[in-house]
Amino acid sequence: MDHLMYMEYYTGRNAGIFMKIKKMLHSYQSPYQRIDIFEHPDFGKVFALDGITMMTEVDEFMYHEMLVHVPLFVHPEPRRVLIIGGGDGGSLREALKHPSVEEAILCEIDPYVIEAAKKYLPTAVEMDNPKAKIVNENGAEFIKKYKDYFDAIIVDSTDPTAGEGGHLFTKEFYKNCFEALKEDGVFSAETEDPFYDKGWVAIAYNRISSAFPISKLYTGFMTTYPSGLWTYVFASKKYHPIDDFDPSRVQNFDHQLKYYNEDIHKACFVLPNFIKELINE
């Protein structure tokens, strides 16, 4: 299959990424989106939705570790965690590394994504964990069922311009997340890249900031995502991501991580000037 290529166009369609398809593993049009999984000679298994890369086997740890461990290492003892989106299972895997977690709900709207992930993706290893519960519902509607319940909410969404992802970037959604958290709850969300999608970075940050008293944007490398630099927002009702962070918890963590560490935690909140200007800091 050396002649087959995968092309992802970035916002504006004037740039993008291409990957050689070594072997096509899965391709299906669900009621919500096109699901593609293939093997790449260097990146391993690649998972895409509607032609947008969700993860590759070799670098997904960068994204999932930064999205999950930044909030969970700020909260002193996260027990109930909700992951909205994240159908590949990577965020669920990282959340369940924390021994305090007793319940982890993965709310993924598309059951066909879960089915494909379980069959083909190594990130889905914890989907059958007894602490995990998988719910196939619209996350923006599901969150309305809860008040003062979760210790942490992690939004692992698709792009706001793709499929159902736009529902997870609204003021109403962030307000509902705030209400679903306990009084010391923490929150994180992926908020796109600051180059091709800088408009969405600013919109997401401003909307989250309007819902939470504490909100800080942070960054991390993500090699196969647009620009290679990715943004996230940490938010909380009570905890500051630096002032209330205990590095010893990371140092004594039972799991070996590939990207995140106690120094990265502090450094990721230091923003370059162009991103500060983007969010008016």
Structure description:
- The longest helix is centred in the last third of the chain and has 14 residues, at 198-211.
- This protein has helices spanning 60-72, 90-95, 111-120, 139-142, 171-180, 198-211, 247-251, 262-267, 273-278, and strands at 5-9, 16-20, 23-29, 34-40, 44-49, 52-56, 80-85, 103-107, 132-135, 150-156, 181-190, 214-221, 229-236.
- The N and C termini lie far apart (49 Å).
- The chain is an alpha/beta fold and 281 residues long.
- The strands form three sheets. It has a seven-stranded mixed β-sheet, sandwiched between helices.
- The protein is globular and about 55 Å long.
Short description:
It is built from nine helices and 13 strands. It has 281 residues and is of the alpha/beta class.
Task: Explain the layout of strands and helices.
Blueprint lengths: L4 E5 L6 E5 L2 E7 L4 E7 L3 E6 L2 E5 L3 H13 L7 E6 L4 H6 L7 E5 L3 H10 L11 E4 L3 H4 L7 E7 L14 H10 E10 L7 H14 L2 E8 L7 E8 L10 H5 L10 H6 L5 H6 L3
Parallel strand pairs: 7-8, 7-10, 8-9, 10-11
Antiparallel strand pairs: 1-2, 3-4, 4-5, 5-6, 11-13, 12-13
Helix pairs in contact: 5-6
